[in-house]
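User:
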Amino acid sequence: MNRSVCRPFRLRNRIQHYDWGTKNGDAFIPRFLGVPVVPDTPYAELWIGAHPSAPSEIDLDGRLSPLDDVIREFPLEILGEEVARRFGGTLPFLLKVLSAARALSIQTHPNREQAQRLHAADPVHYPDDNHKPEIAIALDSLTAIAGFRPAAEIAEALRRHPGLEKLAGRSLMRDVLSAPDENRRGACLKVLYAEIMRHADDAAALRPVIGTIVDRIAAARERTEEEDLFLEQYGLYGADVGLISILFFNLVHLGPRQAIYTEAGVPHAYIRGNIVECMANSDNVVRAGLTGKFKDVASLLDILTYRFARYPVINGEGKSDGVVYTTGAGEFEVTGHQKEAGFETVMSSGGKPVVVLLTSGSLDVRWEQEGARHAEVFTRGESFLMPAALSACRLSSRVGAGFFSVSVP
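Assistant: Predicted structure:
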């Protein structure tokens, strides 16, 4: 065993400047990290992990090294035998801080088999062959749309906006509105939604339909939240087919520490907010609206999951300490912690890697190595990797600390 990697490692993480990120006085990520804001620069995501597109760096023997390179050199020490074997010698999860000023895109993620197929056919737009289940945990708040609304609610939205039949056809619209039960209505809605989305590149058809919806909403005495959001996003994206998904999907509002989990095939879009996000180590996104990036409507419709129901919120009560965000993902398990001043606890690795991200306060981290005691202090915005080879370290704080820890189940 190489003793130089048997210690906690401070992670130096990369910022992604996608155009939907927050800017200037609203820029959350620079404030979170305590660094200056570059004027008019969007701060969208902070990547914490070993994805080859933007790996974190660690100081190893006096030189900064990308984490994915270090893992390739010391897979057993960093990952442990079980994780290295299960996930092909790679860190299986990617942690992010995400700050959205406007919608990211109407999107979904493929399962493993679909990801392999998409990557083989189009490695430019699908850069890896992994699936991407993900959890979004609100730091302050998150507004999102996720999953199809109950079928009866979508039918009511269609009644309010009958002009959609010009995209879907009168017969399909009639089938939805006259369906004898929810199962039949759901089956009809699946066909109708697909027909609408196939007009993504048909500006001549989209403009008058969306323009009519905008006029009806603007003239209405009372508007639903979804209709307000429709107008807002129309102001940003114009006659984009993704606007229509707002009428079909659940509108979700999360408060601090509440979360949603999106597995393969679930349609969603984050609209605004500051979150911690954890996912399988992938950057595969199938987009179909509200974006200037590559759209792939055919692939989205091929892998989409249709469940017409309210979208579940994890930790709906907003508990702050010791919250395990249970999901179906085999790559990650996130736990939220909120500790008072003077706390002290032992964190065990269990022979697997653990990543810790500080969201408030500070943490004193102490460990023993070759008979000597060591300590480092981490503050808000900082993160560290506890390798599998380090069995345990002691955490404490004189001022209190909020943090998330990510491990492999």
